[in-house]
Description:
Layout: H1 9-31, H2 36-41, E1 51-55, E2 59-65, E3 74-79, E4 82-89, E5 108-115, E6 120-130, E7 133-140
Amino acid sequence: xxxxxxxxxxxxxxxxxxxxxxxxxxxxxxxxxxxxxxxxxxxxxxxxxxxxxxxxxxxxxxxxxxxxxxxxxxxxxxxxxxxxxxxxxxxxxxxxxxxxxxxxxxxxxxxxxxxxxxxxxxxxxxxxxxxxxxxxxxxxxxxxxxxxxxxxxxx
Length: 155
């Protein structure tokens, strides 16, 4: 007598059905008409800049890709412990050419909210814009900076 279960064709159909259902869930999540990702990032017509956040001993650095955006169209503010970056990328002109029309760049209003780690100083923020990248540097308060403590050896 074998310890392996007997495989039947209907078992395969159940697995195929499960795989199809999982594939459909992923497709709906990333690309469906009412995509969850679109709900998080806005619809295809909107614009959501990618953001990198990193931390050093003395500051938190936020970098946002904003190519083609006028820095005057960006507002930066701190609300409690949240950095709010908002603005609008405008589509100045849409051109149609012979026989085809294609628009892949997105435009519109955007807002990013980034929770700042404990110890940042909202009064010490600098923002610079260069080559389409907005860099925001938020200083840390002195008490939040790491301290090294020397261990003394007693003899």
